């Protein structure tokens, strides 16, 4: 039942008790005095604080009198209790508040998301309690049983598992049909079953759960991924970063930025590895681009160490605003001199050209790659590779520096000879029996972080071989690994390698948003492109290269009619037929397009559409 510990720790931090006890000093405060300030029953407070004292987080000086110790003193934000209560959004503004922000982040949305990890990985397992009431879909009356409310729609201020939908009767619009193939749709049958078996008064209106939740992806929302544990815990379809930037989460966004500064104690507070190769060898005025650099905590350390270098911190627009505000207070000279600039940029898109036209000397990706699954992390790396300088005999190439945890294996006997990376052997070699090769629980922090990336983003920390393959697939070659002493966090340096072939870059995307915002390259015969063929989503939500006619064909709008017929009948194709892989031209020996075999209507109609294009309409 250790799960109660982070829950109590969150109450301790969120109620600003560390600030109260800090002002009280070593003598501490009684729970009655704490209760008077916090507004929570003193008996409940005493039991919560006693659990924390049992784990040496605080100390109980006398019965029901508690004080800070060296551990809980780290949770003091440096502001007074009154200031924290009157302006909680400014609680983490102080320079020493990084650890407090990190603790709050971990015990809030991260802790909540972890509880839904299994539900996200195994959506068919009905592990959610039967009497669950999803916020925005149910209202409670005076009775003990929940009742279904089908009149209101979820509002923008109410977090829900599904995006807002219209409850009015009538057919679903074509726009909704074509843009509602989000992976979140996979969860709908599970939700329906859960609701149908719940002890609810009244029937559930099926219009609450359309075939797919209507969501129009935009460049602002980013790629649509499969639902994560975070999505389930917060009842939202938004990716974490988009959710964090909504107006109601402004305090959380500021807290996250400060929490990243609080990670330095266990992600490499020492500058030895961060400031090592290639930074000391860069020329005067060389440009370093901190991609996804947040408010610039890492850039600040580098800028202070290397006054001869210039820096650009790239991130999303709200984060850049926070960063500029922080730097104007703490390091205004670097901003005024333009040695450090903030730049709004989406790292899934091509790198912007810089004023002087010179390519960056270093791309820095610190704690970025672990936020994304391999497919999307590869796109980030590929955009950087395309903007990199490959170097010349008398000119250094653009280097890539990745800062992430490198997970060692829990077993001995790892082969490192094939990696050919400087420092790779030291990064992979483990302890000897009877210890685990990765030192077991002593290395747990990195594996905790790995799980955090999975539940929040669907990302992961990686082993060195995994990172090497990821970098190689995007045209980067690892040349150096430097692990922070006493930690599994490492800085990995790469240089440009061979760019992957065009065919290797064509990876199907599992969402319509990916096709619209990330720009997947699909191979379509030129003749068909001229006739208006495009990559689309099929009726079962898979990303495939299908053929859609434009309105300018030789037969007028007949192509659109064929396409509409195809999409209608494709819905009846059996699932096995639909999942046989990317569809293509049907062999001449197959049945006629007008003859629909059982469960194979999709094949015959695809042949009809393909013949329409291939034979010139």
UniProtKB/TrEMBL annotation:
Residues annotated as domain O-methyltransferase C-terminal: 283-391
Keyword Iron set for record: no
Region named Disordered: 142-184, 577-606
Protein name: S-adenosyl-L-methionine-dependent methyltransferase
Low complexity: compositionally biased ranges: 143-167
Domain of life: Eukaryota
GO MF entry, a single one: O-methyltransferase activity
GO terms under biological process: methylation
Pfam (any one): Methyltransf_2
Keywords: Methyltransferase, S-adenosyl-L-methionine, Transferase
